[in-house]
Design brief:
CATH architecture: 2-Layer Sandwich
Shape: globular
Number of helices: 3
Largest sheet: 4 strands, mixed
Structural class: alpha+beta
Helix content: 25-40%
Strand content: 15-25%
Number of domains: 1
Distance between the termini: 27 Å
Strand order of the largest sheet: 1-4-3-2
Number of strands: 4
CATH topology: YaeB-like fold
CATH superfamily: RelE-like
Length: about 110
């Protein structure tokens, strides 16, 4: 079984930093912030073995583009498996209580 490469877009890296900063600085819980971001990164890393294990995001036009979603606690990691490159591109990571549609519309899936 081949292992796929995991890459984070700049936007996804920004999202992950934002999650950390919100928990650490707004909620004043730096240890929880570290643990939460580590849980997200660990779950994402496991996509290297079975990148199609998570469901397609249910809404158009993202479903038609192959966008998949991994839930980690109350956070969602949106990703695109790129079979020709054996790569999983992490597109966005966000709290599941956010306006997902709005934030995905601001995301260019062509990159």
């Amino acid at each position: 079984m081949n292992t796929w490469k995991i890459v984070y877009t700049e936007r996804a890296e920004h999202d992950l930093r934002g999650i950390y900063e919100y928990i650490a600085f707004s909620l004043l819980e730096p240890e929880i912030a570290k643990k939460q971001t580590r849980r997200i990164m660990d779950a994402v890393a496991k996509l290297n073995q079975i990148p199609l294990r998570c469901p397609l995001y249910e809404k158009a036009p993202w479903r038609d583009r192959g966008l998949r979603v991994l839930q980690v606690d109350k956070h969602l990691a949106f990703y695109l498996p790129i079979a020709t490159r054996e790569t999983v591109a992490i597109i966005r990571i966000m709290y599941d209580g956010r306006n997902i549609e709005k934030h995905l519309r601001q995301t260019d899936l062509e990159k």
